[in-house]
Amino acid sequence: MKHHQGELGLIAHQWFQVMRNCGDEVRELLHDGCPVACLGDAPFGYVDVFTSHVNVGFFQGATLPDPARLLQGTGKFMRHVKLKPGTPTNLTALNKLIDTAYWDIKSRVENG
Question: Is residue 98, in this structure, part of any structural domain at all?
Fold first, then answer.
């Protein structure tokens, strides 16, 4: 992410920091150059920067409650929120998705 500067870089750093702050046991790793937030070895979220937008993604996103309808994608498991500079985002709903993804993976890891 250090390669990405400007507005897209700021957006990416901001939201990855939110993921990092979910708990003391959150680890970060790079997968295909993309920063991933994990609980131990179990990933729950990522941030990826593209040419004109940032994706805030969730590995179990298809199962997350999304009353604000922010999540995009049609995969079996993964979903993402697309953030574009100058486009308003429901910050409360995105924070809730990140928090829910963290607690979901925590429950999966602890309850096997």
Answer: yes
Report yes or no: 58 and 44 within 8 Å, Cβ to Cβ. Answer: yes
Tell me the C-alpha distance between 83 and 59, whole Å: 17
Nearest by Cα to 49 from 12, 14, 85: 12
How many domains is the chain partitioned into structurally?
A: 1
Q: Is position 1 within any domain? A: no
Q: Check: CB of residue 94 under 8 Å from CB of residue 87.
A: no
* Rounded Cα gap, residues 95 and 89, in angstroms: 11
3-state SS class at 3? coil
Tokens of residue 107, six digits: 């429950």
Question: Does residue 62 lie within any of the structural domains?
Answer: yes
Mean pLDDT for back-to-back runs of 10 residues, the chain (112 residues): 75 96 92 87 95 96 97 96 95 98 95 79
Range of the structural domain that residue 90 is part of = 6-111
